[in-house]
């Protein structure tokens, strides 16, 4: 792949981007690709490229062989075009510099990419090296390899390990080995198994006993090279009494080809530990006809292993052509707590099948699920959830609320909650509603001087308020803007 | 015979297919007595023994028995092709309550039924299942404009498996109300697909599943709204004792353009013992924006405050629990309009509760 081959397409893509997708652009950086296609050699290439130990390669190969025997799941309410796994690149890394000592050495193209992301939060200042900037550690994943990690020293002083997963495999093999694949087993599902075989990079976080992580951790995922699947692997372990808040946000450039993204996120919370995981996902959703766009097939799961442990998932999903994502909590610990707050917006031809699983195994475990689905255009939006109470789990409490908002009469909103209870002391409540924006609401907002789109954005933000409130401040601002932009052109 | 479904299929994951296989391979035995199964009334009465019509025991009235070749894609429904019963009513025609008793003695038996009501016709049918073995039924219902059908079905088989498949088309302003009571000892699956094809049609399907021992009962009902102003109601109650499992899956589909649909779902489960299981799946699939679809689902044990209240009024714990459980089940059974039928169903539920509690 040469730059000259990419450049004209970028120009086309940029032209097509116009105002509908502000963050659609492509950055030209020299890439080093693994050969196209997926074979054992690809897996070996990735492993060798990352200088991985023998056990890691064995693990990848085992997953790859297993994957070949598996079939893609078809139970979701999604219409997924057949994916040719041989017609994609599985590894791409920005060439140029071997290691980056300071931000000044960062590729100017990459710097500009961050600027174009237009996210007005402290990360910009952090990257620019502004004194007194709010402390947010950025482990930037540019394509597949981490090229900038900031604040590492300060984190290390607190004992926090914040590394790209490939570094962690080299530097903390025992710790990684102890937990990798323990929350999401290798054979969990088709996409997770694929990820095990070919994961390119990702993040590893370990918060030691009793430590409250001194800053919010953040990663910006960017999918940047044409035809490269991106397979992120995230592992966060919070030891006894630890606390960490992790932010994940994504945007992606305009592309014609469908891009597959099959990430795996594993969280482990031991006794009294708390993990807060927030996501804003805004990948390219495809054009009006559903051409292009990212396939987002993600496996996210948290293990609340210790007593009084707590994991909170918050997600704002506005992008991707197809979303298949169920951030879940396995509540093994006594009095452990699982939370899931979600806003999923679909417009155009987008399809989203998302929700959560709360598996209650521990006594007195509690979970809260608040899901807000907003469908517009010709899109389909499905909430799929499971609440399971094991026989030994006494005094379990669950509250589920899933609300759907339909904008227009060409879209669909679906709710598929499963409730499986095997202990009579459980108290399970489920509520759902489906509604539209009433003419009265629109009239009121518009006679106050708002135009139609501003009125819709206002009402939608009100609808999603309970979830947006859970987000860290700067994410909440970004998420509100995203909701408005995602729904542009959906009314009237 | 067609391939049976497996638990690996999403729509059959809670079904006790092992019980079905076991029931199939039992031998035919003697038939239980039919005394006490009839509800008072002079309407038509039919008896089917192992799926075979029993003319000597029947007064068929408007119901005819003939070969039926149902057009269904349902794996169990399709097996029923052969001789079955048919009720066809002309416009404005009404009949007295029709009673059908299905007696099974073991092995497997299949029977199709067809109900076709013309404009503004009105019928009420009560079906009772007793005996043993695998009993498999398909009932195809077509209601023309303004037609009204009430169905009350009780499952009282002492062992085996009962699978019922209902396929209904509900025309403009027509109404179908089906209430099921599972109070026997057989495993069961009540499988329904009701399609509201005319504007202002009403579809109701609900009931109570009472399970104990190792028993597993389930319902899997879909109501599809494809016309304007439709309404549907799915009120299901499950009571699970011992090591049993009761599963309620109810779904409302609202097609594009089926505006002003009012869909109501209420699924509630009560666990009497810590080893019992209740599964719920209240599902919505909505393609129209001006609809009212809400569902509520709860699982738990009896309300401790209510129990305390009754005990403070002098009721011992046993009867107090029974009273609250009875009220819980009554939510579903009270939907039966005919008083005589409702009382008989309530008595069956009562008998079950007396044994289980």
TrEMBL record, chain A:
<dbReference type="InterPro" id="IPR010231">
    <property type="entry name" value="SUF_FeS_clus_asmbl_SufB"/>
</dbReference>
<comment type="similarity">
    <text>Belongs to the iron-sulfur cluster assembly SufBD family.</text>
</comment>
<protein>
    <submittedName>
        <fullName>Fe-S cluster assembly protein SufB</fullName>
    </submittedName>
</protein>
<feature type="domain" description="SUF system FeS cluster assembly SufBD core">
    <location>
        <begin position="221"/>
        <end position="463"/>
    </location>
</feature>
<dbReference type="Pfam" id="PF01458">
    <property type="entry name" value="SUFBD_core"/>
</dbReference>
<dbReference type="InterPro" id="IPR045595">
    <property type="entry name" value="SufBD_N"/>
</dbReference>
<dbReference type="InterPro" id="IPR055346">
    <property type="entry name" value="Fe-S_cluster_assembly_SufBD"/>
</dbReference>
<dbReference type="InterPro" id="IPR037284">
    <property type="entry name" value="SUF_FeS_clus_asmbl_SufBD_sf"/>
</dbReference>
<dbReference type="InterPro" id="IPR000825">
    <property type="entry name" value="SUF_FeS_clus_asmbl_SufBD_core"/>
</dbReference>
<dbReference type="GO" id="GO:0016226">
    <property type="term" value="P:iron-sulfur cluster assembly"/>
</dbReference>
<dbReference type="Pfam" id="PF19295">
    <property type="entry name" value="SufBD_N"/>
</dbReference>
<feature type="domain" description="SUF system FeS cluster assembly SufBD N-terminal">
    <location>
        <begin position="149"/>
        <end position="212"/>
    </location>
</feature>
Automatic annotation (TrEMBL), chain B:
<dbReference type="GO" id="GO:0016226">
    <property type="term" value="P:iron-sulfur cluster assembly"/>
</dbReference>
<protein>
    <submittedName>
        <fullName>Fe-S cluster assembly protein SufD</fullName>
    </submittedName>
</protein>
<dbReference type="Pfam" id="PF01458">
    <property type="entry name" value="SUFBD_core"/>
</dbReference>
<feature type="domain" description="SUF system FeS cluster assembly SufBD core">
    <location>
        <begin position="114"/>
        <end position="328"/>
    </location>
</feature>
<dbReference type="InterPro" id="IPR000825">
    <property type="entry name" value="SUF_FeS_clus_asmbl_SufBD_core"/>
</dbReference>
<dbReference type="InterPro" id="IPR037284">
    <property type="entry name" value="SUF_FeS_clus_asmbl_SufBD_sf"/>
</dbReference>
<dbReference type="InterPro" id="IPR055346">
    <property type="entry name" value="Fe-S_cluster_assembly_SufBD"/>
</dbReference>
């Amino acid at each position: 792949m040469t730059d000259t081959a990419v450049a004209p397409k970028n120009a086309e893509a940029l032209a097509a981007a116009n105002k509908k997708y502000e963050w659609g652009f492509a950055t030209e950086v020299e890439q080093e690709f693994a050969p196209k296609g997926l074979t054992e050699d690809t897996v070996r290439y990735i492993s060798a490229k990352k200088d991985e130990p023998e056990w890691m390669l064995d693990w990848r190969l085992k997953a790859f062989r297993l994957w070949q025997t598996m079939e893609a799941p078809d139970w979701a309410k999604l219409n997924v075009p057949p994916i040719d796994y041989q017609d994609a690149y599985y590894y791409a890394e920005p060439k140029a510099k071997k290691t980056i000592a300071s931000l000044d050495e960062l590729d100017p193209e990459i710097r500009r990419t961050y600027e174009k992301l237009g996210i007005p939060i402290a990360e910009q200042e952090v990257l620019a090296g502004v004194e007194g900037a709010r402390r947010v550690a950025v482990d930037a994943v540019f394509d597949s390899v981490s090229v900038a990690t900031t604040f590492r020293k300060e984190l290390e002083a607190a004992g926090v390990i914040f590394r790209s997963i490939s570094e962690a495999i080299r530097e903390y093999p025992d710790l990684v080995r102890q937990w990798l694949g323990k929350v999401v087993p290798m054979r969990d599902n088709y996409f997770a198994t694929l990820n095990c075989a070919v994961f390119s990079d990702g993040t590893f976080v370990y918060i030691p006993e009793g430590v409250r992580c001194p800053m919010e951790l953040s990663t910006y995922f960017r999918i940047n090279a044409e035809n490269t699947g991106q397979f992120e692997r995230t592992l966060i372990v919070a030891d006894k009494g630890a606390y960490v808040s992790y932010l994940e946000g994504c945007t992606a450039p305009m592309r014609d080809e469908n891009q597959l993204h099959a990430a795996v996120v594993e969280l482990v919370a031991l006794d009294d530990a708390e993990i807060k995981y927030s996501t804003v996902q805004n990948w390219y959703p495809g054009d009006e006809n559903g051409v292009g766009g990212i396939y987002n097939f993600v496996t996210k799961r948290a293990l609340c292993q210790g007593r009084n442990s707590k994991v909170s998932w918050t997600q704002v999903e506005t992008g991707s052509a197809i979303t298949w994502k169920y951030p879940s909590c396995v509540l093994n610990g006594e009095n452990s707590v699982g939370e899931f707050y979600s806003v999923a917006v679909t417009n155009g031809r987008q399809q989203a099948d998302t929700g959560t699983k709360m598996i209650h195994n521990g006594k007195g475990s509690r979970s809260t699920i608040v899901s807000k689905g907003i469908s517009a255009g010709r899109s389909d939006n499905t909430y799929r959830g499971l609440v399971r109470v094991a026989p030994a789990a006494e005094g379990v409490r669950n509250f589920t609320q899933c609300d759907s908002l339909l904008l227009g009469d060409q879209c669909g909103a679906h709710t598929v909650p499963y409730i499986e209870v095997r202990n009579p002391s459980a108290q399970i409540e489920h509520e759902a509603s489906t509604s539209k924006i009433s003419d009265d609401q629109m009239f009121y907002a518009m006679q106050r001087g708002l135009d139609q789109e501003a009125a819709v954005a206002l009402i939608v933000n009100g609808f999603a308020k309970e979830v947006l409130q859970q987000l860290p401040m700067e994410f909440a601002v970004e998420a509100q803007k995203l909701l408005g932009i995602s729904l542009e052109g959906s009314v009237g | 015979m067609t391939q049976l479904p497996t638990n690996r299929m999403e729509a059959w994951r809670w079904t006790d297919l092992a019980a079905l296989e076991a029931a199939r391979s039992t031998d035919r035995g003697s038939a239980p007595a039919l005394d006490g199964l009839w509800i008072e009334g002079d309407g038509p009465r039919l008896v089917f023994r192992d799926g075979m019509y029993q003319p000597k025991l029947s007064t068929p009235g408007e119901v005819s028995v003939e070969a039926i070749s149902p057009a269904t894609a349902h794996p169990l429904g399709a097996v029923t092709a052969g001789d079955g019963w048919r009720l066809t009513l002309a416009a404005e025609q009404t009949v007295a309550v029709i009673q059908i008793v299905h007696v099974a003695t073991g092995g497997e038996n299949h029977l199709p039924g067809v109900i076709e009501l013309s404009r503004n016709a009105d019928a009420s049918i009560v079906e009772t299942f007793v005996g043993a073995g695998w009993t498999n039924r398909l009932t195809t219902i077509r209601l023309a404009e303004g037609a009204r059908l009430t169905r009350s079905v009780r499952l009282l088989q002492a062992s085996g498996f009962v699978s019922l498949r209902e396929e209904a088309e509900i025309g403009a302003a027509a109404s179908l109300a089906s209430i099921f009571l599972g109070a026997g000892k057989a495993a069961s699956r009540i499988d329904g697909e009701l399609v509201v094809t005319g504007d202002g049609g009403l579809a109701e399907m609900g009931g109570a599943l009472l399970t104990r021992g190792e028993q597993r009962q389930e319902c899997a009902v879909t109501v599809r709204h494809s016309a304007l102003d439709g309404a549907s109601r799915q009120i299901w109650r499950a009571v699970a004792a011992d090591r049993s499992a009761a599963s309620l899956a109810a779904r409302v589909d609202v097609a594009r353009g089926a505006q002003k649909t009012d869909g109501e779902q209420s699924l509630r489960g009560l666990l009497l013992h810590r080893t019992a299981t209740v599964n719920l799946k209240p599902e919505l699939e909505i393609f129209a924006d001006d609809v009212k679809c809400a569902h509520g689902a709860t699982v738990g044990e009896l309300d401790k405050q209510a129990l305390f209240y009754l005990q403070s009024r002098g009721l011992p714990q046993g009867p107090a629990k029974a009273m609250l459980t009875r009220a819980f089940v009554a939510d579903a059974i009270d939907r039966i309009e005919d008083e005589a039928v409702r009382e008989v169903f309530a008595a069956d539920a009562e008998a079950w509760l007396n044994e289980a509690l």
